[in-house]
């Protein structure tokens, strides 16, 4: 058996591709963001999906068993869901063993290492398959310094988890590239790392080293270079605020984009905790971020309007833009509003 983490790999090509996306028995779309991210931003790496009975989420890819997917060209089963705590449920194990026996390696972004499961470790060793974990940070992270670094930085932040921070960062990085702006997308989560081929899984970093990891992720660069940094969590989330705070301090963003899901009323996974308003999110992120970059500003708002039709989405974003005095756009729908958001980032 060959155990590997993404920090050992030279890049995305080190991962066996294409993938069979495993959805487990997931019923909450927000927990399937890894599968959706690969489908939307790296479709050439995805062959099919595989779900257990009871699952209600789907990527829209063809449904295949591990054996069928292997025959169709897949080389790894990629765990496409990130449950609370990042654990490996016992009821998933038979399906993962089936994948190993069908000739597939397994790629995981969970906190729990695949080899912590004796049955997976034994099966992989017996069959010569690989168990590949990507959610493990480098070993040489230092504590943050707070030193102002050269170059420019944009960080996506949110009113909650799983509402578009990664998609917004990827879309903005692409928008910058379309304009000839020298820029890099900096991945901070397992899905972004799988898409980009590198990064640091910030939610796996010890809290005291979060700011240092963010500094390592976005080092000194040319004065006109932009690092577009994928945000994590939310300063308002009762569970995941710590990673958001460290990432904000260490990134020292020159501007932020606040990501929001209109219509969502409660924090994901924590019933009873209400979402903050966009205004609250702008204010708190600017106050906290100003600790390490007093010149921080909000460049605009990214709305997740996937549940609205085109007319409703455009009307809502235009109304909120007038009310807030900032560009409001859906980075997936793009259009004139998104162009205005890019303009304001670069202004």
**What about the largest sheet?**
6 strands, parallel
Distance between the termini: 52 Å
Judged by helices, strands and strand pairing, the structural class is alpha/beta
Coarse shape: globular
Task: Characterize the quaternary organization of these chains.
Answer: single chain
Summarize model confidence as the mean pLDDT: 93
Ranges where pLDDT stays below 50 over 5 or more residues in a row are 1-13
**Count of DSSP H/I helices:** 11
How would you sum up this structure in a few lines?
The chain is α/β, with parallel strands linked by helices. It has helices at residues 33-41, 66-71, 93-101, 118-127, 165-178, 190-196, 210-217, 241-251, 278-289, 310-324, 335-346, and strands at 2-5, 19-24, 46-51, 76-79, 105-108, 130-133, 152-158, 183-186, 226-229, 255-260, 297-303, 328-329. Helix 3 runs parallel beside helix 4 (118-127).
């Amino acid at each position: 058996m060959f155990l590997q983490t993404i920090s050992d790999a030279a890049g995305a090509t080190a991962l066996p591709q294409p993938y069979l996306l495993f959805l487990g028995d997931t019923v909450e779309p927000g927990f399937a963001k890894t599968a959706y991210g690969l489908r939307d931003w790296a479709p050439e790496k995805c062959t099919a999906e595989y779900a257990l009975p009871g699952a209600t989420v789907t990527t829209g890819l063809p449904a295949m068993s591990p054996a069928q997917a292997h025959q169709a060209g897949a080389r790894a089963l990629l765990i496409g869901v990130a449950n609370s705590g990042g654990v490996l449920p016992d009821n998933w194990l038979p399906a993962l063993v089936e994948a190993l026996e069908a000739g597939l390696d397994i790629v995981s972004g969970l906190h729990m290492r695949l080899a912590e499961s004796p049955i997976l470790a034994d099966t992989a060793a017996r069959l010569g398959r690989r168990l590949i974990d990507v959610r493990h940070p480098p070993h040489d992270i230092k504590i943050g310094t707070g030193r102002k670094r050269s170059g420019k930085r944009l960080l996506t932040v949110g009113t909650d988890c799983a509402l578009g921070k990664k998609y917004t960062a990827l879309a903005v990085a692409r928008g910058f590239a379309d304009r000839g702006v020298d820029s890099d997308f900096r991945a901070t989560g397992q899905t972004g790392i799988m898409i980009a081929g590198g990064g640091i899984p910030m939610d796996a970093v010890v809290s005291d080293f979060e700011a240092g990891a963010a500094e390592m992720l976005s080092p000194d660069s040319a004065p006109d270079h932009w690092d577009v940094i994928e945000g994590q969590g939310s300063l308002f989330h009762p569970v995941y605020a710590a990673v958001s705070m460290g990432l904000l301090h260490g990134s020292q963003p020159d501007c932020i984009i606040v990501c929001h899901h209109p219509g969502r009323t409660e924090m994901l996974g924590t019933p009873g905790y209400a979402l903050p308003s966009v205004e609250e999110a702008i204010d708190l992120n600017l106050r906290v971020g100003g600790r390490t970059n007093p010149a921080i500003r909000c460049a605009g708002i990214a709305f997740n309007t996937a549940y609205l039709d085109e007319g409703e989405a455009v009307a809502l974003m235009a109304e909120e833009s007038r009310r807030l005095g900032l560009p409001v756009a859906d980075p997936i729908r793009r259009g004139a509003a998104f162009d205005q958001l890019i303009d304001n980032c670069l202004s």
